[in-house]
Every structure is written in C-alpha cells, then in structure tokens.
C-alpha cells in the first residue's frame, strides 16, 4: 500500500499539469499483446496512443539546462526517510547503521555519496537485472530455452559499469559460466538481449508484432502508433493489402474486417509496425535464426504465420519479404543488430530507461509511468549524458534520477501522510 501511495504522489507532482487529478494505480497493468488487426487465438491487443516525444532536449533559447545539480536541502531525518524508501528496490536491502548515521549527521550532503556507493554494490546490478527481466518477460528456463540469458547480460553490463547501451549493442552474450560468447539465436550477428532466444521466443507472435512491440515499449517507451518524426511510415504500396486500409470501408481482406474496433485504421499502426517487425522475419517461434526464411504466408496456416514456425512479413514484394533489413527511426538498418544500435543511440533511449527505473523503484504500472512529467525524464537524461556528449552507465542514470529535487519532493510528501 505504501508503494501505491508513493506512485499516486508521483502522478500528482510529476504529471504534466503539476498537481492535477490523481489516478489510483496498482502493482501491475495487464500486459496485452500487440494487435494484428485480426482475431488471434494466442495474442490479441489494441494499439494505444503514445504520448508526445520524450527526447534529450536542446536547451530552449535563453534557458540552459544544468549538467549537474545537487539535491534539495533536507534534514537528517528527511534524508534517512528518503533513502529508506528507495533502498529495497535499488539495492535489495535496508540501510546500514553507518548509512543512517551518515545521513542523520550530513542530511542532503550525504545523498549523492550514498547513492554512488549503492550503484557499485552487487545488489544494485541484481535489482536492475530483475527490473529488465520483468519488462522483457525473460527469466528462468523452459522448453530447453535459457530465459536467464538477457538477465546475465544486464547484470554483466551494470556490475562492470559499462555503458547502458551495451544491453542493446553488445556483440556478445554471457553464458552460464559467466564468459562472453555468441548469443544463442544462431544469427550471424548479435544485438545484446534482443538476440537471445529468451527474448525472441518469449515475445513471439503473428507478424512478429509481439517482438516489435516489446522492443519499443522497453527501450523507447513507445506504443503504436508513435510520432511520425520518430518513425516514418513505410510506403503504403509496399505492404500487403490488409495493412494498407485506412478505414473499415477500405478493408477488403475478410480475416481483418472484424478488427476495426480499436479506433485506428490498419495503416495507421502497421505503417510503423511493419518497419520494426521486419527485423525479426528470420527468427522462428523458438528464437532461432533461419537464413532460408521467406516471410510468405503459410497458405494452410493461421493468418500472420509463415512456414516452419516463422512469421509472415508485412511486405508485398517477395524479395522484400525475406529481407531482414528495414527502417529504424528513419535510418536504414540491415539487420536487428544495426536496428538495436540505432535505438541505443537515439534521443529516446536514455529518457526511457529513466522512466523504467522510476517505475521499478516505486512499483508503478505502465499506465502510471506514462504520466511522469516528460521534462523530468529529459532533464535527468541531459545530466546523465553530460549534455548528450557521453554514454551513461545505469549507475549514472540512477544517481541523477534520485538526487533530482522533484523525485525527492514527492517521496518526502509521504513522510507525514502527505499522500492519503
């Protein structure tokens, strides 16, 4: 209940309207799978509208964003209260007696050094591993697939204080022996967690929409449709007929006619979905890369499923169907590895990871996370990247997040029952 109250306070103070209406939030939202605009016996979802862009901002004319800040003034008791509220989810433990003494004696001056010591602890890398395992739906082992592979790479990245982008850009995975090696999909390239069978099999669905949707949700904080200046739509004529429709009247494919209940025509979402789903056309439902994949619809199979456990491409042309290259954020990428690097280098990646950390620490749902003030995410990202000049570690992102005066303020508001 305390974490729910904290999330309510976050919504109240971080929301775009300042202290606006409160929305009660629980521990987790149901996780719908992305829409194929058809009835799917395994995965079904309605695309949601994405908020306005969250980017690392250029300072507005006459306004200079700070690249370094200090926490707000706090008493010793307030500092102890604040640290106790965030310690369990960040480092998996309560405060030590030494930390309590330091925070009591030094107040806000103790906050940064204590946070910096936390992000060097093993418990911190374990916490971030858990966060991303939950968001990627990947942990454990089943059906002979190592679902711990993404988590091991995350933990390796955090514990070795590597750039956070390593999670997507690593040209290796971490084996059960702790050593670097190729990822287990069999692809002739690696793309960090995205080329683990755990991610690929765990998010497999028709037309590869589950994989594309999860990738965008976790690493760009976007749903379909998203803003056009981030992801331009592919040409309508390049897509198969069912995804060209912009109204129920234009839809001529019988299997898709019953799907116009989500408020958007097929092309509105799938003009962008198609670009990202194409990167997965050579990965079968078990997460294995198949060079001979064609992307054609299985004439005897369910709509959206290709032959031999693969998924159907959105593309019309047979050559384009089999090409795992596509467009990512307006740039050509020849495969999933290049696409992952574009995401990691984009202006949306770091702010999205800031949001993930806030959601994780305060037990916020995805819908609650959408209400976090974009300027907070942008300001933290700006500081963490040193005004866009460096690739931050996860530790840097966490420190900059939790010394931010707005984050401190919403937590301290609960100290004396401020969130009822």
Tell me the number of helical segments per DSSP (H or I, 4 or more residues long). 17
Q: How many β-strands, per DSSP?
A: 6
The rounded Rg comes to 22 Å
Distance between the termini: 11 Å
Low-confidence stretches: 11-62, 260-264
Q: Structural class of the secondary elements?
A: mainly alpha
Global shape: elongated
Beta percentage is under 5%
Order of helices and strands: HHHHHEEHHEEHHHHEEHHHHHH
Main pleated-sheet profile: 2 strands, antiparallel
Mean pLDDT: 86
Strand order of the largest sheet: 1-2
Helix percent band: 25-40%
Topology:
Elements: H1 2-14, H2 76-91, H3 97-106, H4 111-118, H5 122-136, E1 141-142, E2 145-146, H6 149-159, H7 166-169, E3 173-174, E4 180-181, H8 197-202, H9 209-219, H10 266-277, H11 318-321, E5 326-328, E6 331-333, H12 336-345, H13 349-362, H14 366-369, H15 374-384, H16 394-402, H17 405-412
Notable traits:
two-stranded antiparallel ribbon; 420 residues; mainly alpha
Would you write up a description of this structure?
It is a single chain. Helices cover 40% and strands 3% of the residues. It is built from 17 helices and six strands. The strands form three sheets. Strands 1-2 form a two-stranded antiparallel sheet. A two-stranded antiparallel ribbon has the order 3-4. Helix 2 packs antiparallel against helix 3 (97-106).
